[in-house]
UniProtKB/TrEMBL annotation:
Belongs to the aldehyde dehydrogenase family. The active site is at residue 250. Its EC number is 1.2.1.3. The keyword Oxidoreductase applies. It holds the Pfam family Aldedh. This is aldehyde dehydrogenase (NAD(+)). One of its GO terms (molecular function) is aldehyde dehydrogenase (NAD+) activity. It comes from Trichoderma harzianum CBS 226.95. Residues 15-474 form the Aldehyde dehydrogenase domain. The keyword Chaperone does not apply.
Length: 478
């Protein structure tokens, strides 16, 4: 593999950070350092903002068609280099190339879909007032920023950058400090795709420095974030204290899956297990708490546990590996801490419960059943291969349990009863509900986002694109 890019991508060029500082990136499979990456801080943010500001007038003045063509070229280049990109994420966060292949295919499809939608962004007209014509214009914000989580770096990058720039904005992306390499590669592909210098800029660095500088920058008018609720609140606060920039937040979840007794249990267990083993449980929509009806509880628990341990643990670089390590030591330690807490809270450990290998941050697929109502593992996002399976009796009781959380990202249910499916889907307080599928099933042409403290704003689809336009009402008196 070619040596990964380590400099910052500002104004169409790779440059060292102004301070010259770097930070180390570790491989979670070997626990060894792979490379040092240049670390941006507030001065580099200013340089990137200036580049983005200078690029904005010409970029917004292009026809939508020209902007769309560049995005489509970008998709073509990602497809061409997908194996190289997947290897970068395998190196720095241990994501199996087999898993990333699916993410990258999704990113390519999202780019094509969003770019196509951009042809059809229009305003409204009204003739309701005699002697006047009213119209609305949708116009770009100007300089925008994106702060990324590490767990699906390519798809999170494209879900934010493409709608932003196709709408005529320019952007500064801050990758996660855990996963800087693939975002820098995407910077290189942006240059090759012909985006003018300054339209897309990519900074590597930490949240409390670069992230904070972006959140409080007076010239950034829109910021889109994916990550934890903790960081999302700090970003929203910094935005409010600076220039009240518009903020869109995609945050965590503690996603319930309800399994009613009339469903296909094999299918429900397989789908729930798939959502939790995919990317080693590091997925915001994984079905991390499952409520199985008392009549099928024991059977579900058995089938789920069998399916959950199926995937082969191995090197993320092997195409046959579907279960890799956790992204870094911090994640690994945090998950093991939750597991230990659950054990001492009296939760019934069914399988797993410890690290899986002597070397590398691998954790055994772990299942707890019938955990006490107060256990942290039932309420907090673990972000690892840990399932909690609870028993329920009535529909009302399980809906109340599912909604008893500040999270509201995703929920699922399995039943053959269409009336119950519609009733429960309507009652669940989440931004996405899947019926007869789990968290691994998504809809590329529908908006995605959370209720409550899981988020605000939407990504993907028409609403995801519309996030990146300001609206202006023009009143013409005849
Ligand atoms: P994180 O909040 O630790 O970090 C996310 C990003 O925010 C990183 O780039 C980080 O450097 C930055 N950041 C941290 N503190 C900051 C601050 N004070 N100011 C500005 N930026 C700051 O989250 P993470 O560990 O990278 O990602 C995991 C979380 O992301 C989970 O909660 C997961 O559910 C969530 N997630 C949500 C979605 C979604 O679409 N809803 C998708 C993927 C991940």
């Amino acid at each position: 593999m070619a040596t990964p890019e380590t400099k910052l991508f500002i104004n169409g060029k790779f440059v060292p950070s102004i301070s010259g500082k770097t930070f180390p990136v570790f491989n979670p499979t070997t626990e060894e350092k792979i490379i040092d990456v240049y670390e941006a801080d507030a001065a580099d943010v200013d340089a990137a903002v200036t580049a983005a500001e200078n690029a904005f007038p010409a970029w917004k003045s292009l026809s939508a068609h020209d902007r769309i063509n560049k995005c489509l070229k970008f998709a073509e280049l990602i497809e061409r280099d997908q194996f190289e990109i997947a290897k970068l994420d395998a190196e720095d966060i241990g994501m199996p190339v087999s898993v990333n292949h699916l993410f990258i295919q999704r990113a390519i499809r999202d780019i094509k879909h969003t770019s196509g939608l951009a042809h059809d962004v229009h305003g409204e007209t009204s003739l309701n007032t005699p002697g006047q014509i009213h119209i609305t214009l949708r116009q770009p914000y100007g300089v925008c920023a994106a702060i990324l989580a590490w767990n699906a770096p390519v798809v999170i990058f494209t879900a934010k950058v493409i709608p932003c720039i196709v709408a005529g904005n320019t952007i500064i992306v801050k990758s996660s400090e855990k996963a800087p390499l693939s975002s820098l590669k995407l910077g290189a592909l942006a240059a090759e795709a012909g985006f003018p210098p300054g339209v897309i800029n990519v900074l590597s660095g930490f949240g409390h420095t670069v992230g904070a500088a972006l959140s409080s920058h007076m010239k950034i008018r829109k910021l889109t974030f994916t990550g934890s609720t903790r960081a999302g609140k700090l970003i929203q606060e910094a935005a409010a204290k600076s220039n009240l920039k518009s903020v869109a937040l995609e945050m965590g979840g503690k996603n319930p899956l309800i399994v009613f007794p009339d469903c296909d249990i094999e299918e429900a267990a397989g789908s729930a297990a798939a959502s939790l083993k995919f990317n080693s449980g590091q997925i915001c929509v994984s079905n991390s708490r499952i409520y199985a009806h008392k009549d099928i509880f024991q059977k579900f628990l058995k089938v789920f546990s069998e399916k959950f341990v199926e995937p082969k643990i191995g090197s993320p670089l092997e195409p046959t590996t579907f279960f890799g390590p956790q992204a870094d030591k911090l994640q690994f330690d945090q998950i093991l801490k939750y597991i230990e807490q659950a054990k001492s809270s009296g939760a019934n450990l069914v399988i797993g419960g410890s690290r899986a290998t002597d070397k590398g941050y691998y954790i055994q697929p772990t299942v707890f059943a019938k955990v006490p109502a107060s256990a942290d593992i039932l309420h907090e996002e673990i972000f690892g291969p840990v399932a909690v399976i609870q028993e329920f009796e009535t529909e009302e009781e399980v809906i109340a349990e599912c909604n008893k959380t500040e999270y509201g990202l995703h929920a699922g249910l399995y039943t053959r009863d269409i009336s119950r499916a519609c009733r429960v889907a309507t009652a669940l307080e989440t931004g996405v509900v899947t019926v007869n599928s789990g968290g691994s099933v998504g809809a590329y042409d529908m908006p995605f986002g959370g209720w409550k403290q899981s988020g605000n704003g939407r990504e993907l689809g028409k609403l995801g694109l519309e996030e990146f336009y300001e609206i202006k009402t023009v009143i013409i008196t005849l």
